[in-house]
């Protein structure tokens, strides 16, 4: 650590031409060695002259030493909290590692030297301290004593202090040949303070008169500030409206700075002051009273951050070892019992009072911010009182572990107090200009005149003091209200420093002008100091009166308070105070310890983040629970629930006596019954959720943004992120997918549930402060992808897998039938095989719902998965064609020769397999066509202005159009759900198949032979009992009507890929198929011709499916009379099968 340096304090009150004396004198400077300050030291009272009084620079030294003392104290704190770590063997490494520690101890030693010197100088000058007169001088003096004591106590608590110093000196001696120059004195100091309090009391014995005098000046103030809640209430403390006529009167006091002086600071002064200068306790009854009163207030006082002094134990241990202090020990025990019995309840009642009083004050000032001018003091008093009560609770909650009354050290309503503190801080910041405007006029038009009169009435006024006070008047008189309007930055630190100097000059025994003899001057100057701070130091005042960075070192207590707040429904609206307080952590940093800045920053950001995450989680949970309730209400309106109502209505008309409900069948309430209440006091679950959400919405929407260290925090973004994630999970949960049983909710029911969720979230947009549209848009868009942002499966993946693995797999196995008449897949009645009704998942309304849920991206993913299954079947088909290549080539050349065909057909292997695989392809493509139709309808409904141009563009495509352009247009149309002659997705899927070493000509030959294979295999279908054509369903029970779509779509894709004429090859297929089916007419085996007429109808279905074929083409190769006869025969057979059933 570098030697201590301090930049010179630039003095002045803004005068244009500063002189040698007064505000122009240089304060302090850079000092490192004791000799630098000894030049200003007074040797004796007798030799002290007026000039030497000015040269002592007491004010400057107190300012510098207090700031440096805080830095040294923080360094001691950090050394105590750190571990020594591994011991290095290398001398240079030891030096490098321990230098920081060693120099910190050297800083303590030098700090001690300078404190000794200054305290001796103050004693020699016989300074008089009075907090109500020379506030800054007295406060700085007491602060220095407490800081010095805290440094020494922390030094003694560092267990490895001797080891650190010794190791460093040994390494220094080995490296440089001699020990460190400071080692001897440093070692001596460490040994002296093994028992720190004993040594400190010896050191402060000579200073008892000055210290006790300063402490006694606190008596009236401390007693007044130590009043209970009832006394506060009777005095109507902090109430602006208690006296309406005086509402606009300025809130003034003879001791302005004392009004918001921290109670914790005063307790620390009194406890440590009388601990060091205990002699006056036996000789002065007033000191004894003040000391006992202070002992009854707290069990612990803070030294620094979370290092505390256990007041009664430490004091009792010290006094017990001294003679003549038996009564004081008894007083300590009595005070401790009083504190344990009463202090918890005492502070609890004060916190309760402050909740009500500050809430009223904040409401009044929010409504009338102009009152912040005259009543600014009230705001800072309220902040200081809240801070005192919170810090008292924190340090006692953390340290009082065993107590019979734990409720005294816990407060479930602490969040409200923290919230009010933040609200008041925000109010002061927001209306800073109001405060500045008021106090600028106060300074220029009242304070300056009053000060001028007082100066003129002074009986004695030396030249130095006269110059300083005259500069005060001139500075204040030059102020102009336009300076506030123009946004000018004010700077009165020079004026306040000059007043500090003046306090020092006029507080020494031999001063010509004694401040205590001129209390009016002290009163008006203390008033001026407060008013000047309202112009240039509002933010510093807020830090001074309301900084709660102590929570950075009591994180466990901080987290417990937050957890308790979340458990208390009425406190939820105040929970935002916890992340806001994380912004205070930046104030506990110090320039002398920069290495702790990243650590403190991480603490602040981590806890702010965790608090907001938890609040967002709670809010999103509440929102989703209400959404679930809304979904339950929406679910009651689904069409499937109206059957019972319709049935009851029908029974009432047809039966005289109403049927009694079956046992075990619950009576369903009609939708809307939940809104009928006989008693409004009955609170439903929805009421509780709405109340909780209201509270959480208030806290999440309280501030738009705030800063923690250099980071800007947006609470609404936390909520948006959580809501988006939870909504994604909720939508997947609504789908109800069960992998083991392959159950899933119908798309239409899921869509109704999703709409219920979205409807409620949209209604929350203006309450929760989150962008509801963005949340919904992002969540729904993620559901159109295979995985969401968390890597979890979406409804796109779930429905794609379910339709492929459940519905289409069973359709391929023949347990589900595609019914063109119903435009849906229909489950065939078979025992023990069906777990769902296929038509409930595949009709027009379900396909529309599926398309609306999955959107174009999700439907594309579904299509890609369907095409993968199609291409896998095409690969197998090509293998079968290759196996039968020679036979198929002969058949293609001789299909019109019955005799030769009779010998060739039996040589074909796997003809049934070809038909089966092609049927599977047809089923998949038929399902895709249904899904595309649903997408088209949804797209037309949502974007009619886009659908029109797409359909128009598709119509311009002709067979002569370039194939790349054609596929591009068809791809656009297919994305909108518009059907195309050539399926671009199928073309792309087949093109992506990894081809073997076969040439394109061979591939093309395989495609041609595949159609021949299919054509000559069609007669085999007639032997299948399931190949009967059902007029009712407009299809076959074995789904062979799907063959037509497979033949047309696959042929179009293959020959488009090979750049061949589609129509020519489909005509060839018609011819070969016609010849094969016509030869079936000459078959004599009835088993082979069982469903011949039904198979004939496939020819017409092929033509109807294709835009490339016409009935005239079919007529040229397959007589239409056969089709007509086939229709008649099928119809007759269908009606004959229905007659017995209807008769029965």
Automatic annotation (TrEMBL):
Region (Disordered): 1-23, 648-681
Compositionally biased region (Basic residues): 649-661
Gene Ontology biological-process entries: cell migration; cell projection assembly; cortical actin cytoskeleton organization; neuron projection morphogenesis
Pfam family, any one: Nckap1
Coiled coil: none
Gene Ontology cellular component list: SCAR complex
Compositional bias of kind Basic and acidic residues: 662-676
Leader peptide range in chain numbering: none
InterPro entries assigned: Nck-associated_protein-1
Name the record gives this protein: NCK associated protein 1 like
Native organism: Oryctolagus cuniculus (Rabbit)
Organism classification: Eukaryota, Metazoa, Chordata, Craniata, Vertebrata
């Amino acid at each position: 650590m570098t030697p201590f340096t301090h930049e010179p304090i630039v003095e002045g009150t803004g005068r244009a031409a500063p002189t040698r004396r007064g505000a122009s004198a240089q304060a302090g400077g850079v000092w490192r060695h004791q000799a630098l300050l000894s030049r200003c030291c007074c040797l004796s009272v007798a030799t002290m002259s007026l000039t030497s009084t000015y040269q002592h620079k007491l004010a400057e030294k107190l300012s510098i030493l207090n700031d440096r003392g805080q830095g040294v104290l923080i360094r001691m704190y950090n050394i105590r909290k750190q571990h020594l770590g591994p011991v290095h063997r290398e001398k240079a490494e030891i030096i490098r590692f321990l230098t920081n520690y060693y120099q910190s101890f050297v800083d303590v030693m030098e700090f001690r030297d300078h404190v000794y010197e200054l305290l001796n100088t103050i004693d020699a000058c016989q300074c008089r301290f009075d907090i109500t007169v020379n506030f800054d001088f007295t406060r700085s003096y007491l602060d220095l004593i407490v800081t010095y004591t805290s440094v020494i106590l922390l030094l003694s608590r560092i267990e490895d202090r001797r080891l650190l110093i010794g190791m460093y000196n040994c390494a220094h001696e080995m490296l440089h040949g001699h020990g460190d120059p400071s080692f001897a004195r440093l070692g001596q100091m460490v040994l002296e303070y093994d028992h720190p309090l004993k040594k400190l009391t010896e050191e402060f014995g000579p200073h008892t008169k000055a210290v006790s005098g300063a402490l006694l000046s606190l008596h009236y103030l401390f007693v007044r500030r130590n009043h209970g809640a009832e006394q506060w209430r009777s005095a109507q403390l902090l109430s602006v409206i208690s006296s309406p006529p005086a509402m606009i009167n300025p809130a003034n006091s003879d001791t302005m700075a004392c009004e918001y002086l921290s109670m914790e600071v005063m307790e620390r002064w009194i406890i440590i002051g009388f601990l060091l200068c205990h002699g006056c306790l036996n000789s002065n009854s007033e000191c004894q009273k003040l000391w006992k009163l202070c002992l009854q207030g707290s069990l612990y006082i803070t030294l620094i951050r979370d290092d505390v002094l256990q007041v009664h134990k430490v004091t009792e241990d010290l006094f017990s070892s001294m003679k003549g202090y038996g009564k004081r020990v008894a007083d300590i025990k009595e005070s401790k019992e009083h504190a344990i019995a009463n202090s918890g309840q005492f502070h609890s009642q004060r916190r309760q009072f402050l909740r009500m009083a500050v809430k009223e004050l904040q409401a009044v000032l929010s409504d009338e911010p102009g009152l912040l001018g005259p009543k600014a003091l009230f705001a800072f008093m309220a902040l200081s009182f809240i801070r005192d009560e919170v810090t008292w609770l924190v340090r006692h909650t953390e340290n009082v572990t065993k107590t019979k009354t734990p409720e005294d050290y816990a407060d479930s309503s602490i969040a409200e107090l923290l919230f009010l503190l933040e609200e008041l801080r925000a109010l002061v910041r927001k209306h800073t200009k109001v405060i500045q405007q008021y106090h600028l006029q106060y300074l220029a038009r009242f304070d300056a005149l009053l000060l001028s009169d007082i100066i003129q009435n002074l009986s004695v006024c030396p030249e130095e003091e006269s110059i300083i006070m005259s500069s005060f008047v001139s500075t204040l008189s030059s102020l102009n209200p336009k300076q506030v309007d123009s946004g000018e930055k004010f700077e009165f630190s020079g004026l306040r420093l000059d007043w500090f100097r003046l306090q020092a000059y006029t507080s020494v025994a031999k001063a010509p002008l004694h401040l205590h003899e001129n209390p009016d001057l002290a009163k008006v100057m203390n008033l001026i100091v407060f008013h000047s701070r309202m112009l240039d130091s509002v933010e510093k005042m807020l830090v001074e009166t309301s900084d709660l960075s102590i929570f950075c070192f009591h994180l466990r207590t901080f987290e417990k308070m937050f957890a308790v707040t979340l458990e208390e429904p009425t406190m939820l609206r105040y929970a935002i105070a916890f992340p806001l307080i994380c912004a205070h952590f930046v104030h506990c940093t110090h320039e002398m310890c920069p290495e702790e800045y990243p650590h403190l920053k991480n603490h602040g950001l981590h806890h702010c983040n965790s608090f907001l995450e938890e609040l967002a989680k709670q809010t999103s949970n509440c929102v989703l629970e209400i959404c679930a309730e809304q979904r339950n209400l929406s679910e009651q309106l689904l069409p499937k629930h109206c059957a019972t109502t319709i049935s009851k209505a029908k029974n009432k008309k047809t039966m005289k006596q109403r049927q009694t409900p079956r046992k075990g069948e619950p009576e369903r309430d009609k939708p809307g019954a939940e809104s009928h209440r006989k008693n409004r006091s009955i609170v439903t679950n929805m009421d509780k959720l709405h109340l909780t959400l209201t509270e959480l919405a208030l806290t999440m929407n309280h501030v738009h943004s705030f800063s923690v260290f250099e980071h800007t925090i947006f609470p609404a973004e936390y909520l948006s992120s959580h809501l988006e994630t939870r909504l994604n999970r909720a939508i997947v949960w609504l789908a109800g997918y069960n992998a083991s049983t392959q159950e899933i909710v119908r798309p239409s029911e899921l869509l109704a549930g999703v709409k219920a969720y979205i409807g409620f979230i949209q209604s929350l947009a203006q309450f929760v402060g989150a962008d509801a549209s963005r949340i919904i848009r992002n969540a729904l868009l993620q559901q159109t992808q295979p995985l969401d942002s968390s890597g979890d499966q979406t409804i796109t993946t779930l429905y794609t897998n379910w339709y492929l693995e459940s519905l289409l797999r069973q359709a391929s196995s023949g347990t589900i039938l595609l019914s063109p008449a119903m435009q849906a897949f229909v489950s065939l009645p078979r025992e023990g095989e069906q777990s769902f009704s296929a038509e409930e998942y595949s009709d027009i309304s379900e396909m529309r719902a599926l398309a609306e849920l999955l959107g174009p991206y999700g439907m594309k993913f579904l299509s890609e998965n369907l095409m993968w299954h199609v291409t896998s079947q095409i690969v197998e088909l090509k293998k079968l064609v290759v196996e039968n290549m020679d036979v198929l080539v002969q058949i293609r050349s001789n299909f019109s020769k019955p005799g030769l065909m009779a010998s060739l057909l039996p040589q074909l292997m796997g003809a049934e397999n070809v038909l089966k695989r092609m049927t599977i392809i047809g089923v998949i493509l038929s399902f895709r066509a249904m899904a595309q139709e649903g997408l088209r309808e949804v797209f037309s409904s949502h974007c009619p202005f886009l659908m029109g141009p797409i359909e128009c563009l598709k119509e311009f495509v002709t067979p002569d159009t370039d194939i790349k352009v054609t596929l591009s247009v068809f791809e656009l149309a297919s994305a909108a759900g518009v059907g195309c002659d050539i399926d671009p997705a199928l073309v792309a899927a087949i093109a992506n198949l990894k081809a073997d070493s076969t040439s394109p000509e061979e591939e093309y030959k395989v495609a041609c032979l595949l159609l021949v294979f299919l054509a000559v295999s069609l007669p085999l279908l007639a032997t299948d009992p399931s190949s009967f054509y059902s007029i009712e369903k407009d299809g076959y029970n074995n789904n062979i009507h799907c063959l037509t779509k497979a033949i047309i779509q696959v042929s179009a894709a293959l020959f488009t890929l090979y750049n061949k004429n589609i129509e020519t090859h489909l005509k060839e297929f018609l011819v070969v198929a016609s010849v094969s089916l016509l030869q079936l007419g000459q078959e004599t085996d009835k088993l082979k011709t069982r469903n011949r007429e039904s198979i004939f109808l496939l020819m017409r279905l092929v033509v109807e499916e294709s835009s490339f074929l016409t009935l005239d083409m079919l007529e040229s190769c397959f007589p239409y009379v056969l089709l007509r006869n086939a229709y008649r025969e099928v119809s007759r057979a269908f009606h004959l099968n229905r007659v017995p059933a209807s008769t029965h």
